[in-house]
Amino acid sequence: MRRHAVAIGALALSGSLLASSITERRALAAPLPPGPIDARALDEMTRDVQHFAEIVQDYRSTARMIVKRAYSDKAKQISSKYDPQIAFNDKEAKERRKDAIAMFENFLHHYPNDKRWTPDAMFRLAELYYEKSAEEFLDSDEAYKKAIDSPNPPTTPPPRVDYTPTIALYKRLLTEFPNYRLLDAAYYLLGFCLGEMGQEPQARQAMLALVCANNSSRWNPPDLPKTDKPDDDPYLDCKPVKESKFIPEAWTRIGEFHFDSPNELRLAIAAFKRVLEFKDSPYYDRALYKLAWSYYRDNRFPDAVRQFDNLVIYADKRKAAGQKVGSDLRPEAIQYLGVSFSEPDWDGDTVPDGESGLQRASTFYKGREDEPHVREVFQRLGDI
């Protein structure tokens, strides 16, 4: 009983002390009664805050400088370790390429028409010429950029890549061995090199020889297939020289040549449509985007909206399937969905339509309001 009484007394004392502590804390936490402001104390506190901010800024600047110096020192350390080996490897690669070029040139000199071995030798030599020309251009371009920043910058134009030896050899290969097993790659690489040198009509012709072998001969530069009606498709019956992994990219490049040329939007549309036959191609989303853009530039806004929307759906499906980014063109597609809906003249009569952009968007997305991107489109339309 005494033990219980002592315990009860201790609890009572503890409760009393706790209550007293709470009362004291409340008293301390209570707001002080208003009084006169001490201007001197306020100024002193402001100076202290400013001084503290300056100290923090100095600390951050010093920390950044230390990190940058450590990074620079580490980069120099790594460079000093590996640069000599890289330079040695580059030099050795150039020597071996030089020897290989000499050997293939010697082979072609002695065996210019061997049906079994000459085409492969030509193809490989053309690749070596390409590597040599590309490397020479990169070296010249780097030297030119350094010279631009020097006290005496050059007055000559910047260097340009020259794939003439490669182009000449591919043309010879395609002419002399029209049944070569890598014919598709030869046509594609010929078109690529011509395009890199700015010879776009010839580049387009080489690409058409790959993807439209049954008709390309009648489309010699500067002639082009004619299309006057919106739904004309001069490339509809095209057949490739052979089934090839290069076909989607070739059609994409043909479409871009037309897209960048005046009065060829209908041809660009026809070319980009052919890429959409290859849904697993890495060029699929690019072709969708450029097709939508072609429709937009041709003032065919309903078609543009449909294709921009298809691109967003495609991108979202890819991301839902585990892709990190469905398509890097998705944000622009959302933007131009809003822009397209907001265009005032959809019927082409030069007079603003009675239907608003909001009404068009509401009609287009009727029944699809729960799709993830629809809210984004309406928000973008509202921003515009």
Structure explained in plain terms:
With 384 residues, this protein is mainly alpha-helical. It has a domain at 299-384. 67% of the residues lie in helices and 0% in strands. The protein is built from 13 helices and no strands. The longest helix has 72 residues, at 39-110. It is flat, with a radius of gyration of 36 Å. The termini are far apart. The relative contact order is 0.04.
Oligomer: single chain
Shape: flat
**Low-confidence segments, ≥5 residues, pLDDT <50?**
1-29
* Fraction in helix: 55-70%
Keywords:
384 residues; mainly alpha; 13 helices
Topology (elements, then pairings):
Elements: H1 2-29, H2 39-110, H3 118-148, H4 164-176, H5 183-196, H6 200-211, H7 247-259, H8 265-275, H9 284-297, H10 301-320, H11 330-342, H12 357-364, H13 374-383
Helix pairs in contact: 2-3, 3-4, 4-5, 5-6, 6-7, 7-8, 7-9, 8-9, 9-10, 10-11, 11-12, 11-13
Give the gist of this structure.
The protein has 384 residues and is an all-alpha fold. The chain is built from 13 helices and no strands.
